[in-house]
């Protein structure tokens, strides 16, 4: 009985975790050596480490997206912000003698500015988030191209190389960066009033205003945070390929990020968000991608698989489905009861 | 005549005239009818997609799957014609049916499971792009006497310009769209839904049925756009039309349709699509500007029209309160 109660209480947490374990196990049974991890020069190598490595940019973006979705919003511009911050990093590294930390600060600052722009459109002009962020999504890649002057700018910098591909304590440095960011977000969202307020605004704007929460500033800060996360992800992606590609950097990443948040059980209608589960969602998506690649299927199968999974998850999450299913079981129960007591 | 409902479309018309006027004033070549007829041909697939999108946005929804649908329909057509050896006319019919079927499916999920249109059509966007990849990974030519025959249809206009089959098909679809929006019960239901879905339901509008029909219609228009795009380029490519959904939404918004739904005109969408085309043409005529200026200009116009809409809505609220 007690176990049952535990299962019931943690239903939402268990579903994504179980799916992740299931996907890893299935892939391991199909692809030999998927689970093996080797230590070379004190660095860990293997498919699982690779998943962590490749999942970092998505994880960072998803973190910001989760906070924005918590305020009942959405940020479609993250892909464009990634392109912009990558472009800023590359151009500043090539054209100036500035120290690396200053270049990184500039790239992060530009990302936050982009977020501020979105935030102002959403909270001051009260434009729907989909549309407000759509503007930057359309114009953002144009801005990135303007910064790089239409070229793929390649650069060389030891620090940035380390961020892209270096190792620290056996794990890739970028994974450590992501972990740091996750812990920071968790602390802010769970241990301070700020996190509570953000979810309150998402759950009910009017009620939170009545208890004295300044909604505008909170919504704006959520978008600024999302911009910061996207910029960080853009720096990592640019450092990874040692270049900035304004057209392709972070393409489709917004969709993966939204998918991860939804997989984690957050409602797009705002309110409660699940940060750690979002990371699990990212890992699910990345494992699927890696699994499809290592199984030898063309990479393009990815899209069909992802689409099918999103639709399945959405249908399962829909309150209507639950109503129908529970209605169906109730009828059955009644029928059984009716037959046993004549 | 000039009330707050018509203000956005009047602004659209003004922008259209100003941009076209600037082109005519600045460049000699712009004065030829060729430029105008080329605008009709080159933007036909965008405008057709945007007409379907207009209905979706009028009802307060959004359809992100249209760009992928264009690519999918093109690749499907190429497969049916080249590999399966089916006559293009049947191939087009099959492609359109598939488009409507997928649109209906998305509509059913949105209406009956009450999931936001945005996320359902996002899944559709992945799905169609993926299906296109499953059929074919490379760009393939669509060569059939019937298709080349269609691209040879030409109705000369005074000057050097002329209407191609593609332009004529677009204009016919535009008129059909205007008639559906203005002259049918379904069209009225769409406006009612976008205005206020609760009141619409209370007034006896069949909400679920209308929602399904809207996405089926958008599926039809984007599939049609895929057919036109295939005829226009004479080829099929699974990565074609990436980002067209955004251009289509931009065309609808620049065309004066309120993003919250309920207010707007199909004809405005036509103007919105043409304005994007003119911007591109002007940048090509200038020669010194790069292509990314198109994105910036479209983004800027999008912002301008959204703020204009907000301003008008606020002004109306104030006036009705006073």
UniProtKB/TrEMBL annotation, chain A:
<protein>
    <submittedName>
        <fullName>ABC transporter permease</fullName>
    </submittedName>
</protein>
<feature type="transmembrane region" description="Helical">
    <location>
        <begin position="273"/>
        <end position="293"/>
    </location>
</feature>
<dbReference type="GO" id="GO:0022857">
    <property type="term" value="F:transmembrane transporter activity"/>
</dbReference>
<feature type="transmembrane region" description="Helical">
    <location>
        <begin position="76"/>
        <end position="94"/>
    </location>
</feature>
<keyword id="KW-1133">Transmembrane helix</keyword>
<feature type="transmembrane region" description="Helical">
    <location>
        <begin position="249"/>
        <end position="266"/>
    </location>
</feature>
<feature type="transmembrane region" description="Helical">
    <location>
        <begin position="100"/>
        <end position="122"/>
    </location>
</feature>
<feature type="transmembrane region" description="Helical">
    <location>
        <begin position="129"/>
        <end position="147"/>
    </location>
</feature>
<feature type="transmembrane region" description="Helical">
    <location>
        <begin position="217"/>
        <end position="237"/>
    </location>
</feature>
<dbReference type="InterPro" id="IPR001851">
    <property type="entry name" value="ABC_transp_permease"/>
</dbReference>
<feature type="transmembrane region" description="Helical">
    <location>
        <begin position="51"/>
        <end position="69"/>
    </location>
</feature>
<keyword id="KW-0472">Membrane</keyword>
<dbReference type="Pfam" id="PF02653">
    <property type="entry name" value="BPD_transp_2"/>
</dbReference>
<dbReference type="GO" id="GO:0005886">
    <property type="term" value="C:plasma membrane"/>
</dbReference>
<keyword id="KW-0812">Transmembrane</keyword>
<comment type="similarity">
    <text>Belongs to the binding-protein-dependent transport system permease family. AraH/RbsC subfamily.</text>
</comment>
<feature type="transmembrane region" description="Helical">
    <location>
        <begin position="167"/>
        <end position="189"/>
    </location>
</feature>
<keyword id="KW-1003">Cell membrane</keyword>
<feature type="transmembrane region" description="Helical">
    <location>
        <begin position="299"/>
        <end position="316"/>
    </location>
</feature>
Automatic annotation (TrEMBL), chain B:
<feature type="transmembrane region" description="Helical">
    <location>
        <begin position="7"/>
        <end position="25"/>
    </location>
</feature>
<feature type="transmembrane region" description="Helical">
    <location>
        <begin position="45"/>
        <end position="62"/>
    </location>
</feature>
<comment type="similarity">
    <text>Belongs to the binding-protein-dependent transport system permease family. AraH/RbsC subfamily.</text>
</comment>
<dbReference type="GO" id="GO:0005886">
    <property type="term" value="C:plasma membrane"/>
</dbReference>
<feature type="transmembrane region" description="Helical">
    <location>
        <begin position="69"/>
        <end position="86"/>
    </location>
</feature>
<keyword id="KW-0472">Membrane</keyword>
<protein>
    <submittedName>
        <fullName>Sugar ABC transporter permease YjfF</fullName>
    </submittedName>
</protein>
<feature type="transmembrane region" description="Helical">
    <location>
        <begin position="162"/>
        <end position="181"/>
    </location>
</feature>
<feature type="transmembrane region" description="Helical">
    <location>
        <begin position="92"/>
        <end position="113"/>
    </location>
</feature>
<dbReference type="GO" id="GO:0022857">
    <property type="term" value="F:transmembrane transporter activity"/>
</dbReference>
<feature type="transmembrane region" description="Helical">
    <location>
        <begin position="297"/>
        <end position="316"/>
    </location>
</feature>
<dbReference type="Pfam" id="PF02653">
    <property type="entry name" value="BPD_transp_2"/>
</dbReference>
<keyword id="KW-0812">Transmembrane</keyword>
<feature type="transmembrane region" description="Helical">
    <location>
        <begin position="120"/>
        <end position="142"/>
    </location>
</feature>
<feature type="transmembrane region" description="Helical">
    <location>
        <begin position="214"/>
        <end position="233"/>
    </location>
</feature>
<keyword id="KW-1133">Transmembrane helix</keyword>
<keyword id="KW-1003">Cell membrane</keyword>
<dbReference type="InterPro" id="IPR001851">
    <property type="entry name" value="ABC_transp_permease"/>
</dbReference>
């Amino acid at each position: 009985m007690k176990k049952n109660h535990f299962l019931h209480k943690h239903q939402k947490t268990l579903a994504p975790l179980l799916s992740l374990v299931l996907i890893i196990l299935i892939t391991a049974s199909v692809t030999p050596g998927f689970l093996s991890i080797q230590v070379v020069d004190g660095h860990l190598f293997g498919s699982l480490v690779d998943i962590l490595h490749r999942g970092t940019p998505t994880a960072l973006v998803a973190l910001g997206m989760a906070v924005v979705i918590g305020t009942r919003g959405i940020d479609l511009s993250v892909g464009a912000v990634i392109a912009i911050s990558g472009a800023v990093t590359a151009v500043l590294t090539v054209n100036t003698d500035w120290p690396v930390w200053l270049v990184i600060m500039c790239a992060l600052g530009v990302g936050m500015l982009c977020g501020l722009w979105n935030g102002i459109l959403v909270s001051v002009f009260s434009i729907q988030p989909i549309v407000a962020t759509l503007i930057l999504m359309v114009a953002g890649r144009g801005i990135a191209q303007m910064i790089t002057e239409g070229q793929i700018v390649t650069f060389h910098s030891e620090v940035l190389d380390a961020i892209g591909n270096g190792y620290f304590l056996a794990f890739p440095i970028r994974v450590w960066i992501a972990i740091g960011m996750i812990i920071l977000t968790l602390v802010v969202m769970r241990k301070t009033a700020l996190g509570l307020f953000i979810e309150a605004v998402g759950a009910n704007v009017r009620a939170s205003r009545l208890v004295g929460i300044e909604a505008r500033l909170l919504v704006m800060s959520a978008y600024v945070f999302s911009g910061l996360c996207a910029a960080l992800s853009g720096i990592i992606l640019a450092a990874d390929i040692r270049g900035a590609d304004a057209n392709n950097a972070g393409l489709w990443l917004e969709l993966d990020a939204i998918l991860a948040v939804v997989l984690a059980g957050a409602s797009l209608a705002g309110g409660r968000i699940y940060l750690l589960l979002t990371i699990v969602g990212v890992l699910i998506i990345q494992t699927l991608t890696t699994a499809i690649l290592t199984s030898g299927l063309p990479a393009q199968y990815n899209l069909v698989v992802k689409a099918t999974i999103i639709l399945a998850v959405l249908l399962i999450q829909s309150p209507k489905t639950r109503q129908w299913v529970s209605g169906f079981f109730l009828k059955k129960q009644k029928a059984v009861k009716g037959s046993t007591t004549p | 005549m000039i009330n707050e409902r018509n203000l956005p479309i009047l602004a659209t018309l003004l922008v259209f005239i100003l941009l076209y006027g600037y082109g005519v004033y600045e460049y000699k070549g712009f004065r030829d009818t060729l430029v105008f007829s080329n605008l009709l041909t080159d933007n036909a697939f965008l405008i057709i997609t945007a007409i379907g999108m207009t209905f979706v946005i009028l009802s307060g929804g959004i359809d992100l799957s249209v760009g992928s649908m264009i690519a999918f329909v093109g690749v499907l057509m190429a497969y049916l014609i080249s590999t399966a050896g089916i006559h293009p006319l049947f191939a087009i019919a099959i492609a359109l049916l598939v488009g409507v079927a997928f649109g209906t499916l998305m509509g059913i999920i949105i209406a009956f499971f009450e999931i936001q249109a945005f996320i359902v059509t996002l899944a559709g966007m992945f799905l169609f792009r993926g299906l296109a990849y499953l059929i074919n990974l490379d760009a393939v030519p669509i060569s059939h006497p019937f298709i080349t025959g269609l691209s040879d249809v030409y109705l000369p206009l005074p000057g050097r310009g002329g209407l191609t089959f593609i332009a004529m098909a677009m204009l016919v679809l535009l008129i059909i769209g205007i008639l559906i929006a203005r002259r049918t019960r379904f069209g009225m239901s769409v406006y009612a839904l976008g205005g206020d879905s609760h009141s619409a339901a209370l007034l006896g509008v069949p909400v679920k049925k209308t929602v399904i029909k809207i996405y089926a219609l958008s599926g039809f228009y984007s599939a049609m756009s895929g057919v036109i795009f295939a005829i226009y380029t004479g080829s099929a490519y699974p990565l074609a039309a990436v980002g067209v959904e955004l251009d289509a939404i931009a065309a609808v918004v620049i065309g004066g349709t309120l993003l919250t739904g309920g207010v707007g005109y199909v004809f405005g969408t036509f103007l919105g699509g043409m304005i994007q085309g003119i911007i591109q043409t002007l940048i090509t005529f200038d020669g010194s500007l790069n292509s990314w200026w198109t994105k910036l200009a479209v983004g800027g116009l999008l912002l301008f029209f959204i703020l204009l809409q907000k301003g008008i809505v606020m002004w109306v609220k104030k006036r009705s309160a006073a």
